[in-house]
From TrEMBL, chain A:
Gene3D superfamilies: 3.30.465.10, CO dehydrogenase flavoprotein, C-terminal domain, Uridine Diphospho-n-acetylenolpyruvylglucosamine Reductase, domain 2. Keywords: FAD, Flavoprotein, Oxidoreductase. The keyword Chaperone does not apply. PANTHER family: XANTHINE DEHYDROGENASE SUBUNIT C-RELATED. GO terms for molecular function: FAD binding; oxidoreductase activity. SMART domains: CO_deh_flav_C (SM01092). This is Xanthine dehydrogenase family protein subunit M. PROSITE patterns: FAD_PCMH. Residues 1-177 form the FAD-binding PCMH-type domain. Signal peptide: none annotated. The keyword Flavoprotein applies.
UniProtKB/TrEMBL annotation, chain B:
Keywords: 2Fe-2S, Iron, Iron-sulfur, Metal-binding, Oxidoreductase. SUPFAM superfamilies: 2Fe-2S ferredoxin-like, CO dehydrogenase ISP C-domain like. It comes from Stappia taiwanensis. Residues 5-81 form the 2Fe-2S ferredoxin-type domain. CDD domains: fer2. The keyword Iron applies. Pfam families: Fer2, Fer2_2. This is (2Fe-2S)-binding protein. PROSITE patterns: 2FE2S_FER_1, 2FE2S_FER_2. One of its GO terms (molecular function) is oxidoreductase activity.
């Protein structure tokens, strides 16, 4: 299993990236952590003629607070996310999601930008981005644009990225004070892709649910927000949550799609079990788990 | 025949320039170009952990990196741990606990256990299992490997307490 031949350039500016991407068209592909692309190349499912390595592109590896929220550079690697006090303080749901992804050796290299661009429907981070209302900054030859995560994920391995564009950063808007978040997944073996997963961010005002973003992954062709289920949760009170209307709405609005290992029926069942578990964890009592 | 390109990297403490084709993985480079065969190659797509090496001080899959990406990086393979106390203790306990049969997975297991004990010197059994869950062993079974890692942690901790005590006197 060896990759087909290719040329390799470590790009040093967005202009250089743009020129090479334009010259090679579909034959050029960017590489970040390589933890999805290199296996795909080994299996010849990807055969780029030119690899554009983003590792030297300035400014892509920073984590900082901006007036818009917490900004995470596209080349920030998973282990850096897990170790970052800024992420722990401002986006604890992201810190909580990292250990669910693959294994330590893969988390040394894999990047947040590469993960989102890859858009695996079973991946944790796209759902976390939906739950936190992330905004994705994209750069291309026509300049930069910013789009909400909810418009970024289109289908399996399919995103709103246009040819020659890259993700440069991800912004997580500041969370309200009453934010609680949690992520959980059903998995056959630690580190595997999930059979079904969910990432919830719930905003309380006093004891009342004022807002909820309930994201699911590994249920259909992309990470999705269950908006009707969220609406059924809003207005409910801490310690007195009735999960039934939330789970009914969920079953109605999300139609799971089978994958290699699980039938759609199994996923439908697991989705409800997970949602019930997370509601219990987040809203049964006083103990607050921020996210 | 692919064209060759120079790559300059630090390998087990020595900085040198080598010629590689761009599609050569770091794992193939280590074994075939440099002749360092402690790094094993199993699945070639990141799943088995046999090829685990250290890149800039952290474990990574050598099959999921092209050697050319290692330009300017610090690579350490098991050969580079000769004389490293934590690695020697781990190796000895792997031996004592029969934590290997064919040895194919062993370098990856040792590298992973080494990083675990660096960050978490006194791990629970559950933590050890979690940390080694990305490394496949196809013959020994995992219990002996987990036992050996826990024994190594205990010995390293006992030594640390002993030297800590002496230093305080
Ligand atoms: C054994 C194993 C288990 C795994 N388990 C999980 C898991 O449980 N959950 C999970 O989420 N992932 C898992 N992964 C995948 C891993 O998370 C990858 O790191 C991630 O999917 C891709 O990130 P990367 O930085 O490695 O990107 P790369 O592999 O470098 O790139 C992936 C794709 O994104 C494109 N790309 C990269 N960066 C950008 C950018 N900034 N802008 C635009 N396009 C870009 C590339 O061209 C390529 O098409 C696993 C991988 C392995 C090998
Ligand atoms: S050979 Fe690299 S992980 Fe299996
Ligand atoms: S000892 Fe043979 S694979 Fe682990």
């Amino acid at each position: 299993m060896k990759a087909a031949p290719f040329d390799y350039v470590r790009v040093s500016s967005l202009d250089e990236l743009g020129e090479l991407a334009a010259a090679y068209g579909d034959d050029a592909q960017v590489i970040a952590g390589g933890q999805s692309l290199v296996p795909a190349m080994a299996m010849r499912m990807a055969r780029p003629k030119l690899l554009l390595d983003l590792c030297d592109l300035p400014g892509l590896a920073d984590i900082r607070l901006t007036p818009e929220g917490l900004e995470i550079g596209a080349m920030v690697r998973y282990f850096e996310l897990a170790a970052s006090p800024l992420v722990a303080a401002h986006a604890p749901l992201v810190s909580a999601a990292v250990p669910l992804i693959a294994h330590e050796a893969i988390r040394s290299r894999g990047t947040l930008g590469g993960n989102l661009a890859h858009a695996d429907p079973a991946s944790e981070m796209p759902a976390v981005m939906l739950a936190l209302g992330a905004v994705i900054t994209i750069a291309g030859s026509n300049g930069a644009r910013r789009i909400p995560a909810a418009e970024f994920f289109i289908g399996t391995y399919e995103t709103a990225l246009r040819p020659g564009e890259i993700i440069t950063a991800i912004t997580l808007p500041a969370a309200p004070v009453g934010r609680r978040g949690a992520i959980d997944e059903v998995v056959r073996r630690s580190g595997d892709y999930a059979a079904v997963g969910a990432a919830f961010a719930i905003d309380l005002e006093g004891e009342t649910v004022a807002g909820a973003r309930l994201a699911f992954f590994a249920v259909c062709e992309r990470a999705v927000l269950a908006e009707k289920a969220a609406a059924a949760l809003c207005g409910q009170r801490l310690g007195h949550v009735d999960p039934a209307p939330v789970l009914d709405a969920l079953a109605e609005e999300i139609t799971p799609v089978a994958d290699l290992h699980n039938r759609a029926e199994t996923k439908r069942h697991l989705m409800k079990v997970l949602a019930g578990r997370l509601l219990q964890r987040l809203l049964s009592g006083e103990k607050s788990t921020h996210g | 025949m692919d064209s060759l390109f120079p790559v300059t990297l630090t390998l087990n403490g020595v900085t040198a320039t080598h010629e590689v084709s761009q599609r050569t993985t770091l794992a193939d480079f280590l074994r075939q170009t440099v002749g360092l065969t402690a790094t094993h190659i199993g699945c070639e797509h990141g799943v088995c952990g046999a090829c685990t090496v250290f890149v800039d001080g952290r474990i990574a899959r050598a099959c999921l990196m092209f050697a050319i990406q290692a330009e300017g990086r610090d690579i350490r393979t098991l050969e580079g741990f000769a004389g490293d106390r934590r690695m020697e203790v781990l190796q000895r306990h792997f031996h004592e606990r029969n934590a290997l049969q064919c040895g194919f997975c062993t370098s990856g297991m040792l590298a992973t256990a080494h990083q675990l004990l660096e960050g978490s010197p006194d791990p629970s059994r559950e933590e050890v299992r979690e940390s080694l869950s990305g490394n496949f062993c196809r013959c020994t079974g995992y219990h002996a490997i987990v036992d050996a890692t826990l024994d190594a942690a205990a010995e390293l901790n006992a030594a640390a307490v002993a030297t800590g005590g002496e230093a305080a006197c």
